TrEMBL record:
Gene Ontology molecular function: acyltransferase activity, transferring groups other than amino-acyl groups
Keyword field contains Transferase: yes
Pfam families, per database record: Acetyltransf_1
Protein's organism: Nocardia panacis
PANTHER family xref list: ACETYLTRANSFERASE (PTHR43877:SF1), AMINOALKYLPHOSPHONATE N-ACETYLTRANSFERASE-RELATED-RELATED (PTHR43877)
Keyword check for Acyltransferase: yes
InterPro entries, per the entry: Acyl_CoA_acyltransferase, Bact_Acetyltransf, GNAT_dom
Record CDD domains: NAT_SF
Name of the featured protein: GNAT family N-acetyltransferase
Domain N-acetyltransferase: 4-162
Keywords: Acyltransferase, Transferase
Domain of life (superkingdom): Bacteria
Length: 187
C-alpha cells in the first residue's frame, strides 16, 4: 500500500473517474444499463466534495462516493455510500479497504453517526467487503430490480460509527403504530 494516498476529488478528476465508473460496470453490480462512455461523472447528486479517491503517482485507482443521506434534515446524522469502484487492473490490492477506511474517517469528521449503503444481492464480493468493515445487513428489498429477466434483491447495509456513549438507546427509537412485540429491535 506504500505510495497509495487518498484525497477529495476535483473537477479535473472527472474524466478518470468516469473511465473507472464505465470500466467497472456489470449487471452484477449495477441495476441500470451501461451508459455512454462520455456521460459526466459529476452531476447534481455527485459533487467533487463528496468523492474520495485513491491515487498513486497521480494515477487514480478508485473512488468512493460519500454524501449526506438524501432524505430530510432529520437524517442529517447519516452519510451514505453511493458508489465504490476500483479500476479493474488495480483490484485485489486492498484499495477498496483503504477507500472504506477513508469514508468512515470522513463520516466521523462530518459528525455522522451512521453510514448506509445499498448493494445488489448479486454483488457478493462487495457485500463481503462491507461486512469485513463492520457493516451489517439491515434489510433486503426482495426482487427490487428486474435485470435481464431476473429479479434481483437490493440489500440495505449500515455501519454504526458513533461512540456507544453517544448512541440513542434503541428502546427509545420511535416506531409509530408498530407494537413493541412486532419490532425487530425489541426481539
Amino acid at each position: 500500500m506504500d505510495g497509495i494516498a487518498i484525497r477529495t476529488a476535483t473537477e479535473n478528476d472527472e474524466r478518470a473517474l468516469a473511465a473507472i465508473d464505465h470500466a467497472t460496470w456489470s449487471r452484477q453490480v449495477h441495476p441500470i444499463p451501461l451508459w455512454p462512455s462520455d456521460t459526466p461523472f459529476f452531476d447534481e447528486g455527485t459533487a467533487p466534495r463528496n468523492v474520495l479517491l485513491a491515487h498513486e503517482d497521480n494515477h487514480i485507482l478508485g473512488y468512493v462516493k460519500l454524501r449526506p443521506a438524501p432524505m430530510r434534515a432529520s437524517s442529517g446524522h447519516v452519510q451514505e455510500i453511493n458508489g465504490l469502484a476500483v479500476a479493474p487492473h488495480h483490484q485485489r490490492r486492498g484499495i477498496g479497504h483503504l477507500l472504506l477506511d477513508a469514508a468512515r474517517a470522513a463520516a466521523v469528521e462530518r459528525l455522522a453517526r451512521r453510514i448506509t449503503l445499498r448493494v445488489l444481492g448479486t454483488n457478493v464480493r462487495a457485500q463481503k467487503l462491507y461486512l469485513a468493515h463492520g457493516f451489517r445487513i439491515e434489510g433486503t428489498l426482495v426482487g427490487q430490480f428486474l435485470i435481464e429477466d431476473r429479479y434481483v434483491d437490493d440489500v440495505l447495509m449500515a455501519l454504526e460509527i458513533c461512540p456507544a456513549t453517544h448512541r440513542r438507546d434503541r428502546a427509545t427509537t420511535v416506531h409509530p403504530g408498530i407494537p413493541a412485540s412486532d419490532r425487530r429491535d425489541t426481539l
